[in-house]
Amino acid sequence: MSIWKKDGFFICTEKQYLDVSVVHHFLSEESYWVPGIKLEVVKKSIENSSICFGVYEGNPAQGNAKQIGFARAVSDFCRFGWIMDVFILDEFRGRELSKWLMEIITEQSDLKDAAKLMLATNDAHGLYAQYGFKTIENRDLYMERKL
């Protein structure tokens, strides 16, 4: 388990502290990328992710924390990682918590040494560019399969 503290906020990689109801509510009701996602799918995606980041107001290890953000990744921690489901709840935005979360993910977590990190966004290019993300070169190399 890794835990970071800043100004009364905590980021923790321990899945047991995640409030899945908060994650599900945001993803299903507020996200543009998976509106209506089922709770069972959120639970399974968390279980099968290589690493998850809960962002909390208060210390989750002390049992007095409110989850206010989240991110997860699928990775081998050396060659590749895909970061997804990144969010900070609306009432906590404007405090640079998303920047702190991206700093932790890219510079301090087990993902920091992955040769390639990828993500997709509709509206946060400016945030991610600050942490070295760029538009994909050679897009013709990449393929996808959707069910």
From TrEMBL:
<dbReference type="Pfam" id="PF13508">
    <property type="entry name" value="Acetyltransf_7"/>
</dbReference>
<feature type="domain" description="N-acetyltransferase">
    <location>
        <begin position="64"/>
        <end position="134"/>
    </location>
</feature>
<dbReference type="GO" id="GO:0016747">
    <property type="term" value="F:acyltransferase activity, transferring groups other than amino-acyl groups"/>
</dbReference>
<protein>
    <submittedName>
        <fullName>N-acetyltransferase</fullName>
    </submittedName>
</protein>
<dbReference type="InterPro" id="IPR000182">
    <property type="entry name" value="GNAT_dom"/>
</dbReference>
<keyword id="KW-0808">Transferase</keyword>
<dbReference type="InterPro" id="IPR053144">
    <property type="entry name" value="Acetyltransferase_Butenolide"/>
</dbReference>
<dbReference type="InterPro" id="IPR016181">
    <property type="entry name" value="Acyl_CoA_acyltransferase"/>
</dbReference>
